[in-house]
Amino acid sequence: MNQRRIIELDYLKGVLILLVIGFHLVWFEQLHPFAKQVVYSFHMPGFLLMSGYLMNVGKPPKDFLRMLLWLAVPYIVMESGYIIMASLLPINEHIDRLTPAVFLDRLCLHPLGPYWYLHTLIICEAIYYSIHNSLFLEWFLGMKKIFGLLGKWPYFVLAYFAVYYVLGTLLPLKGVGGGFSFSSALYFLAGAAIRQRGIGFIAFFHPSLLSVLAFATLVFFIDSPNQASFSGALIAYTAISSLLFLFNLFTFSSFHLFAFLGRNSLVLYIFSPIFTILCKHFVPYLQFDPTGLLFLLVSLIVCVAGSLAIAWAMDFTGTSRFFFGRRALS
Questions:
Q1: Dist CA 239 CA 71 (whole Å)
Q2: How far apart are CA 132 and CA 187, in angstroms?
Q3: Using an 8 Å Cβ cutoff, are 219 and 238 in contact?
Q4: Which of 31, 99, 185, 258 is the most exposed place for a label (fewest CB within 10 A)?
Q5: What is the Cα–Cα distance from 57 to 62, expressed in whole angstroms?
Q6: What pLDDT score was predicted for residue 170?
């Protein structure tokens, strides 16, 4: 993978994380329900595709487990805080009675709020890595020659489906099948399959003006976009292709900003919910704009600046290593 492609993926992550933050602003999403449906059909699928594509399954087990650990720590801390908040505040996902059993169910099986992505990512990466490096199962299934010709990606897809249905249907761990999104797993696996076949991410999505026209056409004709449907997958594909096409139209300074945000997308994803909740206090002062775009702009600035400020403070105090396993986040 060359440097050019890495830069483009940083840009793509920067655009997508702004969309994630923007459509977690309750007042703005209520003003634009159809736009929310469209954006929801591709913003997290885009992250899952890139996560599957960029995952390094060649890491030694020790390094891989360390990577999972430093995804799990911020997930546990932030999701735990969200669960406790949901039991105290009158939000849409309010928990009437928080017990240890309810807490563990929400933390391990049915995550609340925006941190479901980390939960899904941990599960997908653990299964993908385990199956990709499992020569015993390959031998047991007697498919070594077949998979030697096709590559390992059909193998881990089939094995993953088996694991998914065993855990989610046959065993009493219904949270794995219920709280764990099947469509999200497919997007992750699609990204991994693209990588396994040796296809460049940019080449696969083939940015072009035609993709922009296709995206606009799909949005115009599809009433209820959904990432779990075939039409939702088409929207996700054309949206990502369109964003990559627009990459070439940005000025250097604009592109540099998006790429910077993309490199810090994990920080923005984890800490921005703290500020999206606070931004509701801007609504009475910005209601004069019926489009909500001014509210969106102000809120994005606050959420991004606030999240980066937390990251920089953690770097300065040295607490980043205890939360993310790194000396510096930004």
A1: 27
A2: 17
A3: no
A4: 99
A5: 12
A6: 44
Amino acid (one-letter) located at 62: K
Instruction: Provide the 8-state DSSP code for 41.
Output: T
DSSP summary character for residue 280: G
Look up residue 228 and give its amino acid: A
pLDDT in tens, 178-212: 455 778 888 888 898 888 788 889 999 989 899 99
Residue-wise pLDDT tens digits, 7-46: 889 999 999 999 999 999 989 999 999 999 999 999 999 9
| Cβ burial, residue 201 (10 Å; 0-12/13-18/19+) | buried
**Tokens standing for 164?**
């998914």
Sign of CA dihedral 281, 286, 290, 295: negative
Residue ranges of the chain with per-residue pLDDT less than 70 = 1-5, 134-180, 250-254, 327-330
CA distance to 38, 68, 281, 300, per residue, from 119 (Å)? 23, 11, 30, 25
